[in-house]
Amino acid sequence: MPVPDERESDLAESYGDQIHADTWASDVTSLGGNKYVTTWTDDATRWTKTVPQKEKNQAFPAYKALEAELETQEGRRIKELQTDNGGEFWSDEFSEHLKSKGTHHRTSVHDTPEQNGVAERVNRTLAEHSRAMLLDSGLPRNLWPYAMVHATWLKNRTPTRALKGLTPYEARYGSPPDLRDLHRFGAKVWVRKESAGKTESKAREGRFVGYSQKSKGYQIYWPDKRSVTVERNVRFIEDEPDSVEVEDVQLEGAKADRGEQPTSSTSPSPVSQPASETRPATPPPSEPSPSQTNQDDEEEESAPPEEPAGRGQRVRKPSKYVRRLQQGEGTVDGRTSAPPKGIQPAELMGAAAVTALATIVNVSNDEDEGMHFEEDEEDAAPHAPPPIPLEYGFAVMDHALLIHEGQEPRTLEEAKASPDWPQWEAAIDKEIKNLRDHDTYDLVEPPPNANIVGCRFVFRIKRDADGSITVRVPRYLRCAHTSRAAA
After folding, report:
1. Average pLDDT score over the chain
2. Cystine design at 118: which of 20, 49, 223, 264 (Cβ 3.0–4.6 Å)?
3. Which residues make beta-bridge pairs with 65?
């Protein structure tokens, strides 16, 4: 006889009339030595209780505790127990107890788990949810009982099709659940130390692993001690949301009759976090335990230190002037400037600049007369190479900049000098055409004695996940400093 796809019988009428039970075994022994869990699901409300166990035969004590709770707290008796043919439900002691209470024991036929489908489905759902929470939080796998119990807490407060959109909490208690204190499993928390010394930290960092079932508190896992305690004075550290890049933005200076407000920048502004969820500035470090390191975290191997190039080779210390160039604090002509986006300061005076300098015509001693570069006395070394003349320094910097393809130019002149200028030129033509099509400006004679707001191009490059260039975006924007001056 085939097993039907849909349930043929109706739900039980009230809480406790029928209980579905099944045992699930883990492949990892938990922090407290548990290896199994038994789930007890009510048929009428689909309310589930998950009980971690060290041995399979502990299902009978768990059932008696559930039975006593229903009789004392709800004034109800379990009328029917639905299980599979597992030995933990067929012990002589278990069978005699059910007979003494008048409880019917229904079992599924061998090799037919579909007849115990409610309990089987619950175990699979809880196992998948707990595995996902452990992977997302990065916590060790031996915390799986806490993840299973927390997944049960979430299931009892999640709408289900079996109850036509109601939650098991509503079906049991008659009111919707309060989820204002809902937090992500494994979230970092600060726990106040009530007896901290005068010079000690006032809080410790831990991880949230669920709500206490016996008291109004949070279960906190301490990675350094490999233990879980119940705490009350807890502050959660919520992760900051990732900034989202705005793809479609309002064109600069678009007229107001289109019903859209012009934007002053194409770059997105970061989303601010509420004060209560702001990450503390200097959190105290916490060292992972040996078991956590072995099970989950794989430490990155650091590269071995580089050995000197030659035996007894003297390392020449760069001068203050060269250090300023390498750090991006100045240029060869003395002006302060920042390097282009995407180029590290050290790259500008690296091997490429040295190669470019070697191709420049040698400077004679006569040409170097009158040039002076400030240098620390401690940096002054005998037989130091002559300083780079002004005009040749520009050549070195220009060459170092031009060899980097696919970089974002800072000015129109840098874009023209870039190897990517044909692509930038086509993108600029498209931007100008877009501005004209949207009627964003009118050509008029400048009024006398007026501060004219200047404009400039801002160049941006968008890349895919592999780092390849997908599109080049030049934006024609007004200069912010001239706008403030005009105001």
Report:
1. 75
2. 20
3. none
pLDDT of 173-188, one tens digit each? 999 999 999 999 999 9
- Structural tokens at position 457: 């191009």
Place of tokens 């706008």: 483
pLDDT score of 123 more than 50: yes
The encoded tokens of residue 304 equal 């071995």
Rounded to whole angstroms, how far apart are CA atoms 243 and 269? Answer: 8
- List residues bridging with 236 in a β-sheet: 189
pLDDT of 486 above 70:
no
**CA dist list (Å): 352 to 113, 344, 390:** 70, 13, 18
DSSP string, 267-298: SPPPPPPPGGGPPPSSPPP-PPPHHHHHHT--
The angle subtended at Cα 20 by Cα 15 and Cα 23, nearest 5°, is 135
Which domains does the chain carry? 18-173 (3.30.420.10), 180-240+276-294 (2.30.30), 320-402 (no CATH), 412-486 (no CATH)
User: Which is higher by pLDDT, 264 or 220?
Assistant: 220
User: Please, which pLDDT band fits residue 455 given cuts at 50, 70 and 90?
Assistant: confident
Question: What is the percentage of the chain residues whose pLDDT exceeds 90?
Answer: 40
Q: Whose structure tokens read 């109800």?
A: 76
Best CA proximity match to 390, nearest among 411, 420, 412, 368 = 368
Q: Among 368, 366, 359, which residue's Cα sits nearest to residue 388?
A: 368
Per the CB < 8 A criterion, the answer to whether 212 and 218 are in contact is: yes
| Full strand arrangement of the beta sheet holding 80-83 | 48-53, 36-42, 18-25, 80-83, 104-107
Calculate the alpha carbon distances from 156 to 167, 220, 406 in Å: 6, 22, 53
